[in-house]
Design a protein that fits this description.
By secondary structure, this protein is of the alpha+beta class. 41% of the residues lie in helices and 21% in strands. It binds one RNA strand through helix 3 and helix 4.
Length: 423
RNA sequence: GGUGAGAUGCCUGAGUGGCCGAAAGGAACAGUUUGCUAAACUGUCGUACGGGUAACUGUACCGCGGGUUCGAAUCCCGCUCUCACCGCCA
């Protein structure tokens, strides 16, 4: 979430930036500042009285020790009455804190100044496009037919053992999955990311740290008996590795990558969006996460964007990169690039990656800080991106590379899966 | 699942009612010095929220939440977590 300091010190700037999300935070921000003023006032009162009470207690102790029990006992009632006033002031302070917090969590991250204006997906800015859209043979079909034709993925079987959106990958389909995961991880390692293998369930504190809780509660699978959430992305465990941590500036940037299955309830999705591999309850993804110095985070975001673009090029897929407009950005992001590959058979763009800079929005929640070279404690910026999510990559490989005689595997994956054609 | 022990600062670890925001050692950082991939010495060395132009200063925090007391790291209650042993098991 945004910090009080940001709001107090750069009020107008924050308001202007938030307006890009097509809502006016002016009122909320006034309320936050009002509540924070109340909090400060209550704290001053409480602290003053506490100081007095502490002083009295000390006096009483000294008196007892020097044998002046009678004098000490005289002072006691004074502290008792003080205690009541203190309790009152602290109650006010607590209430004001609760108010501030309740308001603060309703505010999304403030978009970066370069974020384009816009209401929705139609207003996103295409900043890059690469690759030829292939011409398919006349019997070309969408991936959900190809997966059946070549016996790669069994959606029905998944329904039987779990439910819709939990596919079973079979034979070359399963091998292709494994090849992609290994390829993505190897690429990330080469780019300097440390490979990690985190738990795929997280506790409530972690869900809060990266911003999934409280507002996206219904989107995560929850194991009630143990109060654990199935992760919707590796971003959650990997970023939470650094919850309550104070780093040294010299440690920055921190670069981690992880493959994990991802679980999403996708409540409310329907229609062509959920057909085949387009939207699943469980899918595989390799995530890259960085923690970076605030001065370098946007430079890093560009590098991460270019990194993902490089992977897509190697996979020989036609893709474009969008800079999301204010109206289409995620709640916690300050700037997001989406990568979309073109699915020739479905004649639509499919989102396969999202690369974002969160500035201090996550750090603040995580209590993630670093000591800068002057010894000052500051918050670093967090960034992450998919590199990449598998299902739609698989869908577009199948669809774009289909021929009359089978599906051609991208060159770069051949060493990983051990075959050149799916037939 | 059963039984027992424990939770203190970056780490180890002392502290059982006021002199404790907390000993000591280690690590880390800065400096001094030494002709050798280091040692010795000195200093610094928790976080958060306030007040103050500033120097400085107040408050809270010894797993979490309550309670007792003029006063709690220290006593009491509840919770969570960790460890050990047994049982079960990949």
């Amino acid at each position: 979430m945004l910090t009080l300091q940001q709001i107090r010190e750069n009020r107008e700037d924050i308001i202007a930036r938030l307006k890009k999300r097509n809502f006016d935070p002016t009122e909320t921000i006034s309320q936050i500042i009002e509540a924070d003023n109340r909090r400060r006032q209550a704290q001053v009162e409480a602290d003053t009285m506490l100081a007095e009470a502490n002083g009295l207690s000390k006096q009483i102790g000294d008196l007892f020790k020097s044998g002046n029990a009678a004098q000490a006992n005289e002072l006691k009632p004074k502290t008792v009455s003080l205690k009541e006033s203190i309790a009152q002031a602290e109650e006010l302070k607590k209430q004001a804190e609760t108010d501030v917090y309740a308001l603060l969590v309703t505010l999304p991250n403030a978009p970066h100044s370069s974020v384009p204006e816009g209401k929705g997906a139609g207003d996103n800015l295409t900043v890059y496009q690469h690759g030829e859209i292939p011409t398919l043979h006349e019997n070309a079909v969408p991936h959900w037919e190809l997966t059946t034709k070549y016996d790669l993925i069994d959606f029905e079987l998944g329904v039987k053992i779990a439910g819709a959106g939990f596919p079973v990958y079979k034979g070359k389909g399963a091998k292709l999955q494994r090849a992609l995961i290994n390829y993505f991880l190897d690429k990330a390692s080469t780019a300097g990311y440390r490979e990690m293998q985190p738990p795929i369930v997280v506790n409530e504190d972690s869900g809060f740290g990266t911003g999934q809780l409280p507002d996206k509660e219904g989107q995560m699978y929850f194991v009630g008996e143990d109060k654990l959430y199935l992760i919707p992305t590796a971003e959650v465990p990997i970023t939470n590795l650094y919850r309550d941590v104070i780093l040294n500036e010299k440690e920055l940037p921190i670069k981690n990558t992880a493959y994990t299955p991802c679980f999403r309830r996708e409540a409310g999705s329907y229609g062509k969006d959920v057909r085949g591999l387009n939207r699943l309850h469980q899918f595989d993804k390799v995530e890259i996460v960085q923690i970076q110095h605030p001065d370098k985070s946007y430079e890093t975001l560009e590098q991460m964007k270019d990194y993902v673009a490089g992977v897509l090029k190697e996979l020989e897929l036609p893709f474009r990169i969008l800079k999301l407009c204010g109206g289409d950005m995620g709640f916690t992001s300050a700037l997001t690039y989406d990568m979309e590959v073109y699915s020739t058979a479905q004649k639509r763009w499919l989102e396969v990656s999202s690369v974002s800079c969160f500035e201090t929005y996550q750090s603040n929640r995580l209590k993630l800080r670093f000591k800068d070279n002057e010894g000052k404690t500051r918050m670093p910026h967090t960034l992450n991106g998919s590199a990449l999510a598998l299902p739609r990559i698989v869908a577009s490989i199948l669809e774009n590379n289909q021929t009359e005689n089978g599906i051609r595997v991208p060159m770069v994956l051949v060493p990983y899966c051990g075959f050149e054609v799916i037939d």
